[in-house]
Structure to design on (124 residues):
């Protein structure tokens, strides 16, 4: 079972990035997917999640209207589209998977599998 993130980069404020989370060893469609981020010296925080079978999505207030979570079941990959990036979005971004129950939570403890992270840096 493995999750691999990609797509992180250095971008100017106002720019966009799309992060990818490729799964292997299991089918993402059976799991709820979460994106978390951790900035230097800060706790890892939940950014967004989508429940199994795409029944619901959740976003932390600071990214609402700017970030969009999605998945492509045919590619067994989840995405986080990030628009209008701000310097405070700078962090290592992680994707995570939890056994699907039709809902998702922005709580680290709920997730069973984690990727290794991808760095997003937003310059002002």
């Amino acid at each position: 079972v493995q999750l691999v993130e990609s797509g992180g980069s250095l971008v100017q404020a106002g720019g966009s990035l799309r992060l990818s989370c490729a799964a292997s060893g299991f089918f993402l469609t059976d799991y709820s997917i979460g994106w978390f981020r951790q900035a230097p010296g800060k706790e890892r925080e939940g950014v967004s999640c989508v429940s199994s079978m795409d029944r619901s999505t959740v976003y932390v207030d600071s990214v609402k209207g700017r970030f969009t979570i999605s998945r492509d079941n045919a590619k067994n990959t989840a995405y986080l589209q990030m628009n209008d990036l701000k310097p405070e979005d700078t962090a290592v971004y992680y994707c995570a998977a939890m056994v699907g129950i039709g809902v998702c939570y922005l709580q680290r403890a709920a997730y069973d599998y984690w990727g290794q992270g991808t760095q997003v840096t937003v310059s002002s």
